[in-house]
UniProtKB/TrEMBL annotation:
Family: Belongs to the protein kinase superfamily. CAMK Ser/Thr protein kinase family. NIM1 subfamily.
Protein name stated in the entry: non-specific serine/threonine protein kinase
Keywords associated with the record: ATP-binding, Cell cycle, DNA damage, Kinase, Nucleotide-binding, Nucleus, Serine/threonine-protein kinase, Transferase
Organism: Agrilus planipennis
SUPFAM superfamilies for this protein: Protein kinase-like (PK-like)
Any GO BP: mitotic DNA replication checkpoint signaling
Ranges where the Protein kinase domain occurs: 10-267
Length: 462
């Protein structure tokens, strides 16, 4: 089977991700192997998307900075609008953040500097992003951070004249208190607040509040100074906490600016980035608790998603057996080459997988090979999904879609693809809608349930 051609010399790869209005897919040049991401929006299906996407294109095409995802161009065919974007092979920043743990301080500092440089550039251009969060920060093959998704971005300054903003938008745990209040607000301090929340997520593996309003008990503790014995603040070293306290000031007029943040002692501390990685050598699965409580504030996603009707896994197996006509079902992507990746990742001597199989896979930790046949794996998986009270279903392409809610009772949807690779079976988990860290918590729990069937002799790009 070969990949579907898009236009002459370009073919579609796999699905990179999903957004509010459509999918992001990979395009590969058959001659040069150049890769481009294409964001595809069905305007007939999403009537309200047209003006928003047009605005997004108008803003993003004016931008050129190493920490901003590049827009190469756009075009419309019938009711499908396509945006051609720089392909960031390293995936999303949230995938580098371990739930409830975070990442080493040197790594967080490295990405924070790049985020600040990118946001400062946007502000110099008079543009507010208004939805800064780890899911909207990508990493390229050179470990360079790229700000993406300008769907909520807007101009706040033109020809030296600045206007106040009044739209309440963004993803709630990252939104500044003045935005939530519903009053008019200045753009730059609001984006700066979001950057501060991202920093806490990187250092602690959790957001500090469900929302920055007095409705949230964690936020009330923050503004009254009664937070020091609670998480995530107990995880922060003094210098980092000092910086965060200056960023997360409720009064935007007193909030530290990005140029001032870049002068702060923590930002300019010396960390050994590579050596810093060794702080967390213990496997993630041994550091996290596999239960359903997840007490404390966590991230959330602002888009509601309808629940899916559950079906019996035996029906799934019978359906896939009928669809495949062979020993194994195929789900999207349907060809080994449809996956994209980091070609720099080493393979162990014990694995028998062809290296070419991995050379276009997006870098993610949420996938693993299994050593059992797919029917046995599905039986175990189905029992686990039912045990966790997840709602799930199977679409016509053979993709399992799981629907649940996070700790804030906000929708969380992710998908599982079963992919055959040179006689091996890969389970590939991908977030569809919701919070990245909450998704990773669920993935870790499911991986723990499947631990006895995971093929540890195969190294998976992560």
């Amino acid at each position: 089977m070969t990949m579907k051609m898009f236009v002459e010399d370009w073919k579609f790869g796999g699905v990179l991700g999903e957004g509010a209005f459509g999918e992001v897919k990979l395009l590969i040049n058959v001659n040069t192997n150049a890769k481009v991401a294409v964001k595809m929006i069905n305007l007939r299906k999403h009537n309200d998307a047209h003006m928003m996407v047009k605005k997004e294109i108008c803003i993003q095409k004016t931008l050129s900075h190493e920490n901003v995802l590049k827009l190469y161009g756009s075009r419309q065919e019938d009711d499908v609008l396509m945006m051609f974007l720089e392909y960031a092979i390293g995936g999303e920043l949230f995938d580098r953040i371990e739930p409830d743990v975070g990442m080493p301080a040197g790594q967080a500092q490295y990405y924070m500097k790049q985020l600040l440089n990118g946001v400062q550039y946007l502000h110099q251009k008079g543009i507010a992003h208004r939805d800064i969060k780890p899911e909207n920060l990508l990493i390229d093959e050179n470990d360079v951070l790229k700000i993406c998704d300008f769907g909520l971005a807007t101009m706040f300054r033109l020809k030296g004249r600045e206007r106040l903003l009044d739209k309440k938008c963004g993803t709630l745990p990252y939104v500044a208190p003045e935005v939530i209040s519903g009053e008019s607000y200045h753009a730059e301090p609001a984006d700066t607040w979001s950057c501060g929340v991202v920093l806490i997520c990187m250092l602690c593996g959790e957001a500090p509040f469900n929302q920055a309003s007095t409705e949230c008990s964690y936020y009330r503790k923050w503004i009254t100074g009664n937070y020091m014995l609670t998480s995530p603040w107990t995880k922060l070293q003094y210098s980092a906490l000092n910086l965060v306290k200056k960023i997360l000031l409720p009064n935007p007029k007193k909030r530290i600016s990005i140029p001032q943040i870049l002068e702060h002692s923590w930002i300019n501390s010396t960390f050994n980035y590579k050596d810093d990685q060794s702080l967390y050598k213990e496997p993630l699965s041994k550091r996290l608790i596999y239960d359903d409580t997840f007490d404390g504030p966590n991230l959330s996603y602002s888009q509601p998603t309808p629940c899916l009707p559950s079906i019996d896994m035996k029906d799934v197996i019978n359906l896939l057996r009928d669809k495949s006509g062979s020993n194994l079902c195929y789900s999207q992507p349907t060809h080994n080459d449809d996956l994209m990746i980091n070609s720099q990742l080493p393979l162990t001597q014990t694995q028998t997988i062809n290296l070419n199989t991995f050379q276009c896979m997006v870098k993610r930790m949420t996938r693993f090979f299994v050593k059992q046949d797919w029917e046995k794996v599905l039986e175990i998986l189905g029992a686990a999904l039912d045990q966790f009270h997840y709602t799930w279903n199977l679409d016509e392409s053979g993709v399992i879609t799981i629907s649940t809610v996070d700790t804030r009772r906000m929708p969380l949807v992710f998908k599982i693809n079963l992919i055959e690779m040179d006689s091996k079976l890969l389970l590939d988990f991908r977030l569809s809608k919701g919070c990245g860290l909450e998704f990773k918590r669920r993935f870790i729990k499911l991986k723990h349930v499947l631990r006895d069937v995971i093929d540890k002799d195969v190294t998976v790009p992560s």
